Amino acid sequence: MALSFFLSYAIAGLVGGVSTGLVLRWVEPAIRWSQVIGIAVGWAVAVVLGGFFPSGVISGAVAGALGAGVLYAVLRRART
């Protein structure tokens, strides 16, 4: 696979993760900036890994499941 594949998917995941993190920080000020970065990086990795599947439905399901797992882990740490 080409480098542009990884870069485009990673950028898409970062944008989505940063957007999600910023909204969470706006709603819940207890969310720290390091957690926003963790969400963004987690979503970037999830989208890149999901991109390896040929079907768009499977790819989206894998990326969504991985991203949701990362988000859950970060939010769980924020509450403790």
Structure write-up:
By secondary structure, the chain is mainly α. Helix content is 84%, strand content 0%. It has 3 helices and no strands. Helix 1 packs antiparallel against helix 2 and helix 2 (33-50) runs antiparallel to helix 3. The longest helix has 25 residues, at 3-27. The chain is elongated and about 40 Å long.
How are the SSEs ordered, and which strands pair?
Elements (H helix, E strand, L loop, with lengths): L2 H25 L5 H18 L5 H24 L1
Number of helices: 3
Tell me how many strands there are: 0
Q: Helicity, in percent?
A: over 70%
Overall SS class: mainly alpha
Shape: elongated
Question: What is the average per-residue confidence, as pLDDT, rounded to a whole number?
Answer: 85
- Tell me the major beta sheet: none
Cα-based radius of gyration, to the nearest Å: 13 Å
As residue ranges, the low-confidence spans are: none
Distance between the termini: 40 Å
Strand content: under 5%
Give the SSE string.
HHH
Summarize, please.
It contains three helices and no strands. It is mainly alpha-helical and 80 residues long.
